[in-house]
Amino acid sequence: MSIDDSIQESPPAVLTIAGSDSSGGAGIQADLKTFMAHGTYGLSVITAITAQNTQAVHSAIRVSPNMVAQQMSVVMSDIDVRAAKTGMLADAEVIEAVATSWQRALEIRGTAIPLVVDPVMVSTSGTRLLDAEALTTLREKLLPLATIVTPNLREAEALLNMTPHAIDSVNAMRQAAAQISSQFDVNVTIVKGGHLRPTDSGTVIDVVYERASDNFTQVSSARIDSANTHGTGCTLSAAIAANLAKDLSIADAVRNGIRYVNEAIQTSYKVGRGAGPVNHAYALCTMPIVRPTLYNPHPFTQYLKDNSSKLWQQYTQHSFVRQAAAGTLSTHVFVHYLKQDYAYLKHYARATALAAFKSDSLKEVSVLVDAMQACVRESKLHVEMCAQWGVSRADMEMEQESWSSVAYTRYIIDRGMAGDVLELLVAMYPCLLGYGEAARIAANDPKTLRQGNPFWPWINAYACADFQAAVAQGRQVIEDLVSRDILGPQRLRRLVTTFCETTSLEIKFWDSALDING
Q1: Could you please report the per-residue DSSP string of 396-459?
Q2: pLDDT of 361 over the 80 cut
Q3: Candidate list 19, 42, 193, 233, residue with the active-site label
């Protein structure tokens, strides 16, 4: 194998155009950490250099507009930038250089690139970072180029020439978001509510306004009592840009970005004597899921199996399958199973339809539509097999659903209603993955009886190339979803729990079939 054979596809490149923070908590330092945490490749254009720590900004000097423009030109002429964000832009001349260079780069490229503008005006410690002339240039030259703008309350007030603290409610945030999008021709405006007076609910509300659909979304997060909030605005805009570079929808990019910042605050640690930084690397430190390699091509799947090893072995080597492979399974037991699985497939198809409804990717929807059609084909196999024992489709339709089937199918639907598309697919995953693996184990076992075994067609249906291809297709959808997400420790634990619980329900499904013989 040559070294080129092992080189993976390059991660999407994301550009930050911002100032340098010598304390490492904000600015390009925070952005580059965030880009890496999201599995993207970070590029930087430095607009200013600050001497600051966690307590104060002591001094700052701008980089010349010409040098800013040159940085942008050479980077974007060589590297396929998939998204960008701006932060501290120093003054009017630098802002104009950025806007002009961005427009020129887009003209050369010929396609749009998402741009997230974080209108940095005041540091966390209270230092003013943008004067009146620069604010005017920001409004007139840069905001109209933005895909998303992410002001906090004070920045939103400044952009709209409002008096300080005029935005004092969620309703006022909604009005400001719509006004910013309308006035400056911005597609999406996020007004961040971290500075809003805390409520009894203990939540922070960010308002997202999409101008094209005139739609408001309120994203609620737990309010964390922490002094470590230095650079949260930089981090959020960087996270959103990284998510957009990974082809997430705007809604998912924003929602995932907000969750990333919230969990980065929760896992932060003390740095310095002032407002400390968030923990940008929390996901890298706590999630042992690496990128795919030659030796571990499906890392998330492997992680799920490793964390349910005893259950997974019990499931894929279940006595029901072993008896079917040996030809010793009771026909009465097998027919009961087929009737129950026939009912189960209806609910599994419904869950697949729900996953398609929740997905915003046509590629994923296409795979899920195929999966629904596979449920129909699988149910036909059940009908054909039952017919040889004198059981009609009408008999199968009238069969009362067992409690094990009710518990299993309703659990999956509940996960789908309560969670996102990834959590639903993880709940459905043991059925797809486990049947494929259990059948493959049985098919490869030299002790498995093929000739004269009435249960062999059932095993072969899941061991055959078509079903194994369906397993591979479904697995790739899940692995791709995970590669675009940031799985913090809480979310990862929840997904593992869901996988283990549905694996356990699969075991009980087969157990209940064997139990009818007493």
Answers
A1: HHHPPPPHHHHHHHHHHHHHHHHS-HHHHHHHHHHHHHHHHHHHHHHHH-TT---TT-TTHHHH
A2: yes
A3: 233
